[in-house]
Records
---
Amino acid sequence: SRRPAAPARRPMVSSVLCRCVASPPPDAAAAASSSASSPASVGDPCGGAICGGPDHRLRLWSLFQTLDVNRDGGLCVNDLAVGLRRLGLHRTEGELRKIVQAGDKDLDGQLDFEEFVHYLQDHEKKLRLVFKSLDKKNDGRIDAQEIMQSLRDLGVKISEQQAEKILKSMDKNGTMTIDWNEWRDYHLLHPVENIPEIILYWKHSTIFDVGENLTVPDEFTVEERQTGMWWRHLVAGGGAGAVSRTCTAPLDRLKVLMQVHASRSNNMCIVGGFTQMIREGGAKSLWRGNGINVLKIAPESAIKFMAYEQIKRLVGSDQETLRIHERLVAGSLAGAIAQSSIYPMEVLKTRMALRKTGQYSGMLDCARRILAREGVAAFYKGYVPNMLGIIPYAGIDLAVYETLKNAWLQRYAVNSADPGVFVLLACGTISSTCGQLASYPLALVRTRMQAQASIEGAPEVTMSSLFRQILRTEGAFGLYRGLAPNFMKVIPAVSISYVVYENLKVTLGVQSR
């Protein structure tokens, strides 16, 4: 009959993955005794990774063949649907499609054996992190109180009855607790992307402000969106950006001056540039242009976040968070919308940074004079290279950050997805630096085009003619003028914005876990 068939197959599926408890035995002797005394332990204890015993690949191959219904050496969505149904596991077509997309490295629409193995390894690693984060008592079991506490930490309050309902859906032996094997078996071949734990700890663009707001916006968990924690994160990030930009403003102004005025005949150095600024306008002149640079944080961040949330609905499917390439598309479009909205402020910032003492009485005076002398078009000088610069900056920053994040999670994450301060700062600094390096020539051309009308008698130039002129007169090096002060401000900017962000989070009542 069909009824006893499913239980006979289910243990075979469960035993394919690691059956070890949450922490490995201290030595080989303990491992041997543990294995002998507990028939549930199959393979070598591994403490989190899938067992790598000699028969492990054979067990994986056995499961792969069971799921490979049409025997073509690959698992497509239909294979997984039929194969898992035979094993008593029911998944929706959307869930199965996500599994294939997550593991399909060669983009042929199905998983071969190596892709299948890699997907399961990565999958169990993520499930282990979630299980450990829920297991507050660290006893290898999750009970109703721990589920309630974990959701409370995320700002969501549920009753004990609701927590018990969640437990019953996974609890196979009726103990009203979930051990690692029950947790893992329940989620076997179930897509897990962007676990809330990882989203919570690996915020990137919200935390770090290096003066350029071109990064792809952070993801927020469902709980953060429902409880209003997202706006507190954005306010904390905006405040951190304001402090960070103000502290590094002298380096930013020096960068703008070197981008516009430095050449082979006028070789500005860092010390000489600071001396020249102080001699011309005193120490206070080091902060010229910072006011408008800080003011534009709020409208840019707000517009970008709202645009990103709207574009996500168009780009993404029904899943909670987007995959990397979808995030890049949505983030770049949101960045383009935000930059288009506040671009006149970018032009004002450059003009204010380049102004001589007494040239303008303030931001409004500067805007009025530009409008009177040059017209509305002046507020969009350099717009094209600025828009083109969003894609390499956002793309490389996101790719490098996600690569570093995943490398750390794969190699070092054991008990939590929390990377700690130094890892987070290092990843943010490296990814921001790579993004800036890739888009720097476009940023330099943008700044020169913004500044050109402030130079008396300067001819009208296009982006392509300016590129050619710089390459002809200064060589490739000319496209990187001002790079030194730009890189000098990255580490202090990232560090200051992180410290201020963490303190503002506490002040605003954001759960800092």
Note: The domain at 222-508 is CATH 1.50.40.10 (Mitochondrial carrier fold).
---
Amino acid sequence: MASDCEPALNQAESRNPTLERYLGALREAKNDSEQFAALLLVTKAVKAGDIDAKTRRRIFDAVGFTFPNRLLTTKEAPDGCPDHVLRALGVALLACFCSDPELAAHPQVLNKIPILSTFLTARGDPDDAARRSMVDDAYQCLTAVAGTPRGPRHLIAGGTVSALCQAYLGHGYGFDQALALLVGLLAAAETQCWKEAEPDLLAVLRGLSEDFQKAEDASKFELCQLLPLFLPPTTVPPECLRDLQAGLARILGSKLSSWQRNPALKLAARLAHACGSDWIPAGNSGSKFLALLVNLACVEVRLALEETGTEVKEDVVTACYALMELGIQECTRCEQSLLKEPQKVQLVSVMKEAIGAVIHYLLQVGPEKQKEPFVFASVRILGAWLAEETSSLRKEVCQLLPFLVRYAKTLYEEAEEANDLSQQVATLAISPTTPGPTWPGDALRLLLPGWCHLTVEDGPREILIKEGAPSLLCKYFLQQWELTSPGHDTSVLPDSVEIGLQTCCHIFLNLVVTAPGLIKRDACFTSLMNTLMTSLPALVQQQGRLLLAANVATLGLLMARLLSTSPALQGTPASRGFFAAAILFLSQSHVARATPGSDQAVLALSSDYEGIWADLQELWFLGMQAFTGCVPLLPWLAPAALRSRWPQELLQLLSSVSPNSVKPEMVAAYQGVLVELARANRLCREAMRLQAGEETASHYRMAALEQCLSEP
């Protein structure tokens, strides 16, 4: 070993004999004064030229941490020596040590983070070379710590983020280094930075936004790249939004090269992701700006994806996808839209062309690329388009459907990778932030709304069935349903889970109506029916989940009519529990409500149903119709309904309200159920007669019920 080290030592000595002489003096120092003098000489030699890692380690071995610690904390300097000179010497030594990654992560360096952070904002003569050197060395130490695996966490805990913000806002010496280190920390640990220093970071954002709005030179393009990192995970201050929008409007309204335009598009996409359209002012200027954004995004997408063989700037195109999605939302908004009708027509046309380019790209994606984030982003924007528009590009969409089913199946079967892809898409498109609820972690959820529309049409539906989409949807529904089952905290689930379940129900409803043979022959629907039966009783009791319960009840009733011969529906405990819960859902929708100045009450929606009736009423009427169809197919159902007292309570409700308050479609729905129950069971007929059923039927002109109850 000695022979190996000897040449290296001789080489170091020959390269920097002065440093070796000073190190010798340091080792031989007998007191603080001699050690201090030797350290000054060592520091001077180190700054005079580059040193390698071995020499740096030899300096550390000679000095250690004890003396630098004393220099940093001493309050008494030798006569004639300013106290900051001692601190500067201590920081210089730490900066030298921190060039070694192992030493940068040393506890003796980490516990100096609060002291080093204070040097960034220390007051003093800005022209003092020693002070400037101390600030530079402090930044060097903190930057070195940030480069270690756990360094950012230690810096954040040590108050460095606030110190950096104050240093930048003070625009003192080294403020540009403060901004660079802030950018690195936000990129590495954004959430923790904002949690620890939100007021200070917001102050920096205000300063950057104001600078961006005022900038007339090339600095505005540099700010475009920095600003996305400083947008908070919570609400962006209104004054910042105004400045950012004004700055972007000025940039994007000019003739630019791609390197100037692309950062602006990415910043706009980040704002769209964080704020929707709230950052765009209402009125003529806002509508023109939004139209400009979407047009530029569509042009960029077409240029990137239509020409085969060109290199796609995936981060820019994904940002453009976010702006297109904003355009889709505004074009489909009926109230308080920023866009005028002619603008909507024009944007739909240009977005259609861009979506055509997306389809063209996806048709060329092979199996080896299916797990790439950009493919996920492309499927996402297509899903957003199909959720609102399926009539245009129908041929192209049908051509792509087999790929979409295979893609969704691949990601569903590798759910963890799908979630990781969602994170990568957010990073690719916008910033290092983690994805919010608008970036769901599976491809299938993105496609559900579009598939819901497509299953109504014969051609697309046949392709989806042929490719195995119904079976995939059943598996997906059952997997998602597990997240809402007992034992899981549904309060922490994102809304997208419940919305996804509802959309699945709508797709299944379409298949029940348009492809009943599929429901009867595919075993996956038997499993689905079993889940619906066991789940509904608990679901109807849960507050705030009435709309999902309506979907489950109605779907289950319609499927029960098709699967009526299944053993599971022959009066089993699960089937009885399901129909009891379905009756509860159907029977509690309306109540008798007294009206001032009138002797008779009126039929009114119950409080739970009133607020969501617009979304609920179609399901309710369909559920009533489906229940009516189940009664003659399931002999045990009419006696079960009688035991629940639904027919008696329904007649009592009708007799207690004014017939004029009951709409004709309600009369028809109620009569349908009552007639089938009366026809199916003698005891039901007798119970209805005892409840003045014939008289009530006469009042409501329910001729079929009146005739049925008049028979033996």
Note: The radius of gyration is 36 Å.
